[in-house]
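Record type: monomer structure entry
Structure origin: computed from sequence
Chain ID: A
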Amino acid sequence: MAIKVLHPGLATTVQDLGRPGYFHLGIPIGGAMDRLAMRAANLLVGNDEGAAGLEAVFIGPKLEFTRDVTVAVTGADMPVKLDGEARPGWTAFAAKAGQVLSFDFLKSGARICIAVSGGIGVPLALGSRSTYAIGALGGFNGRAIAAGDELPVGDAGASTAGRTIPEELRRKPGTPAQLRVLPGLYWHRITEEAQQAFFADEWKVAPEADRMGYRFRGGRPLDFVPRQPPFGAGSDPSNIVDSCYPYGSIQVPSGSEPIILHRDAVSGGGYFMVGTVISADMDLIGQLQPNTPTRFVQVDMEGALKARRERAELISRIRALF
């Protein structure tokens, strides 16, 4: 063991880059909500970028190290302290056995990623150490960490203390946040006026925002094109014959409040999908606090692929630092 949990923070879980390949069985990809931040934290401490770290929401944990490690905290702006002394975010620093990592109040963003040299050494479950709490799968005993837990840490190489990632490579949501959306197979189910309103309106993140999905409020309700419900679909105009849900898809039950399905979301169901948030912008969602103003921006496939290339280039620039 190398980490004693003195206080768990809020919904702090072990996460890596997820377990792709099981979505068809109803097991979501999971993994860090902000994958760029988790990759960056691991690279800072000399880990493989897919190593397991900790993800905390709104309130950081209090952790005591039982051996010397290198630590990095990325993601949200939540001031970092080691034995009460400030440490910079997005920068690797040394922590000695007996020292305690803690955090001040959140300033911006929503989630932090904590990496330690050697990675969190919980057992693999379906090829990943990520916690899927709803299914009690992976992570530390399939759940969020709790006070008194002792987390194992893998073997580490030489210290990388002092490494840092410059501000221009730390991607964060703007104000308002802008999420690019590719309209989907069911786009034709709403009227042209509703299509325009969906992208014209400003929405706000609702309190119901977690690893399964983010709900948004404040925009105009969507009007549906009249239809005769097909066999197998419900009577509500937002109902469809059960279908697969793409990762990042946006369902709008009854046309009122869009829900973006995120890392731990279900793989299918009976609500229509207005479109899908492009992969390049999914990390941003994990950093949105409730009531954050948000706009959806329409893109085509060419724009989505261009954004994916740009995100890959950003990751490559971070890798090149080390």
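Annotation 1: Residues 41 and 86 are 18 Å apart (CA to CA).
Annotation 2: The longest helix spans residues 301-320.
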